[in-house]
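In these records, each integer encodes one residue's backbone shape. Here is one protein:

___
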Amino acid sequence: MPQRLAPFHVLAKPIGPACNLACSYCYYLDKRRLFGGGERLVMSEDVLEAFVRQYIEAQDCPEIEFAWQGGEPTLLGLAFFERAIELQRRYAGGRRIRNALQTNGTMLDEDWCRFLRRNGFLVGISLDGPRELHDAYRTDARGRPTWERAMAGLALLKKHGVEFNTLTVVHRANAAHPLAVYRFLRDCGSRFIQFIPLVERRVTQESRDAPQGVEMRFAAPPLAGPSDDCLEPEAVQAAVSPETVRPGEWGAFLCAIFDRWVRRDVGRVFVQQFDVALGQWLGAGSALCVFAETCGRALALEHDGGLYACDHYVFPRWRLGNLRETPLAELVELPRQREFGAAKAEALCARCRDCAVKFACQGDCPRHRFVRNGAGAVSYLCAGYRLFFEHVAAPMARMAELARAGRPAADIMRSGHAADRPVRSGRGSERNAPCPCGSGRKFKHCCGAHRTAE
């Protein structure tokens, strides 16, 4: 009898970091250098079959979801995914199989969309906002904009009735335009929205983690707690990539969209951060690893069968093994993977443990904890998350009350609790406080201005 494990999720990257785009902020393009310049980045038939079989066998649930990402997975062509569907049906054992595919949308055509619809794929399409904001960093290998091609792909998905959500990277260019981004996504027909804050540290001699001195653009993330390469607060902005969102901008971005959403769109548009926050206020915990107390149950599988601790930890230090040599069920339960997941909570610094919004934030993703705070380390995004969670506390509490009473959270739009409120700076109640993004300007003239500028 196959071993049954606690639930876990694997993000499969069957084409590794290969992509037809060259987004300037992409942390995954660097991974090519980890696999050797001449290697063909395609998951082989034997790795695909081993993954499908082992993943299904290890899951003790009636429904199993496969998530396919890259790079750009559509570069593999339809034949690869048709074979994946065949293997899933062979090994399903009566259980329901669902598939999710993340794509930049630029290579979708009629055949792709017919296949996705026929097989019930959920498609996550990457859109960073209106044309000028999307094209700021999302260009192809020749430096050409990609917005029109992505929008053509989205139009085909809608034409064929393919279920989709949108994934938006929040970066230095679009963070100042939260309502423009939100309106764009809503007008595109997106009802399930994921915002992903861009945080990338540039490599220094002290923060390398690559084999045989391979040159990388971005630094390997810390495990969870303080490390030798944690940065003093005044050095942080010089050490992150120029595309990285500033902490206060990230908080103000979420606050501005929340204020619009809570007045008009509760129950109609689902924003991942807001849904997860409501779950935290209800005491249900977080299904999103970023805000969960521990992690380690969301792993990444590369095209060669190598399994890594997390999608953001695809570095030699966090390679668990290869499923061609060791069964997936054993790799997931390795002691060092359990330690990896537990370290998120164990390494929380005193400032985080004493924070009023710790229950909602849980110290953020360990990869963001590189800002020194006394003897510990806090998330680069700490100021932004404090701003956001403090701002939404009252309406979240009200929605939680409604849910406990068996009423829809959308009733808040009729209750008066959704009225506009001033955004707080995260350092007290004054909008005249210094902005937490570190710009040196007052909050009301910096990140706080963005929520009313559109």
